[in-house]
Structure formats: structure tokens, C-alpha cells
Amino acid sequence: MSREDREVLTRRQAALSGLTKNPNWPEYTEEHRREIARIERKMLQAAKGPDPVDQRAIDFWRGCLFILKWQIAMPVAAERNLVRYLRSQGVEIEDEEEELSNA
Fold first, then answer.
1. Does the predicted model carry a pTM greater than 0.90?
2. Quick check: 97 and 83 in contact, CB under 8 A?
């Protein structure tokens, strides 16, 4: 990876990891979890119902579940990767950031 690409990636990871520090992050993730549960219930009802399952609809809802879970995981993973990269460059990491990298 070129130096410029590495710098762009580092800036992107820093920006994404900043999302987890937002005071509203717990509300955001909880709302996503509620939506995930709602979609899973809807899919289960469709599967258990008397009518044949519409595979296109199920595939659509599976895609929605994937993106909702990804939106929660991406900033956390970016922060973990950023901490790992900074540590490899010899930068000292604060205790809070170190705990996140071990999670």
C-alpha cells in the first residue's frame, strides 16, 4: 500500500472511529438493534405463514439486516484497526483506546 493510500485509510478510520465517541452512539446502536429485531420477526412471520414465502422479499430483508449490522460494526472495527496501526507506528495509546482494541 502506498504512503498516500495509507494516509487516506488512516484519516478514514479516524473519522469512523469518532462516531463511537459521539454521545448519541448508544441510542443509534439501540435503534438499529430494535429495527433488526423487527425485521427478523417479520421474516419469521412470513416463513411461518400459510402463504408461500416470497424469496425476493426474504433476500431483500436479509440485505437490510446485513447493512444494519454493518453500520454498527464498521466504526468499532475502524477504531480497533486505527489503534493497531498507531501502535505499530510507535504511538502511545490511551487506556480507553487500548480497551477498545482488545474488545
1. no
2. yes
